[in-house]
Structures are given as C-alpha cells and as structure tokens.
Amino acid sequence: MPPMTWLGWFHTIMGAIAILTAAYTLYQNRIIRASDLLGRAYLLITLFVAGSALAIYNQGGFGVGHWLAVLTLTALAAGFALETLKPVGKWSIYLQTGAYSATVLFHMIPAITDFLRRLPVGDPFVDSLDAPLVRSFHLAFLSAFAVGVLLQWIWLMRTRD
C-alpha cells in the first residue's frame, strides 16, 4: 500500500467524521435530510470527501474508489433534487431517503477496504481487494443498507399516513 498523502489524511479524517455524523443523524432523525442541521452537515462533509476522493491517484488511474465518489456525488445531487423539487410528489421522500442512505454505503465500502488493507501496519488483515474478508464486509454493508432503507420507508409510511 502506498503511504498516505496529506490529501489522503484529510480525506480519511473527513470520511470518518462523515460516517459518525451519519450514524448520529440516523439515530436522531431516522432519515438524512438537508433541511436538518445534522443532515446538512453530513451531506456537506460527504461532498468534500467525494470531491477529495476524485483527486487521489496514489494507486494508479481512475479506479473503484473514484467510481464510488462519482456514485456518491450522483446520489447527493439526486437526493437534494428530490428533497427540494419533489418531482414525484409524495414518493420523492422515499427516493430521497434511498439516495442519501446510499451515500452512507458508499462511505463504508472504501472505509472498510482501506482499513483492512492498511492495518495492522506491516501485516494488514488482507492484501487484495478480492479477499473473502473484504467481500464479506461489502456484502454485510449492502445487506444493512437494504434493510435500513426498508425500515426507513416503513417508518415514513407510518408517520406520513
């Protein structure tokens, strides 16, 4: 693994702050909204993290991390448009919830991958992106995302009807 640059450290620290902010926001409000102070903070931090990810090229060319950053920026834009414009009426909040929650998933995938590939220093847990442990975490995060969004939608249905 290449050493961390200053941009890499900024990206990593801000990413950790984003994950903690998302967890607290979801605990406090059940969904992420730009109209809430905590939600807005999370979304702005996520914007900076995704933007900085596009500038990190210490492992070659445009890779998986860059594609996740593009997906994150797309989910942010879609969620914000759904929240502010409400293009599909009452269904907009459900799609917004899915989009904003997807950004949490897009944070978790590179976070766990980088963690497993860097630590412990000198003898990391895995040496490949294809390692079974990495894939297991990715599958667990994808499952948690699906269940989480389903629970958010159920909560929205119960509070909105």
Number of strands: 0
Largest beta-sheet characterization = none
* Number of structural domains: 1
Strand content: under 5%
| Alpha plus pi helix count | 5
Description:
By secondary structure, this protein is mainly alpha-helical. Helices cover 74% and strands 0% of the residues. It has helices spanning 6-29, 37-53, 64-85, 92-118, 132-160. It is globular, with a radius of gyration of 16 Å.
Short description:
It contains five helices and no strands.
Keywords, please?
161 residues; mainly alpha; globular
How are the elements arranged and paired?
Blueprint: H1 6-29, H2 37-53, H3 64-85, H4 92-118, H5 132-160
Helix pairs in contact: 1-2, 1-4, 2-3, 3-4, 4-5
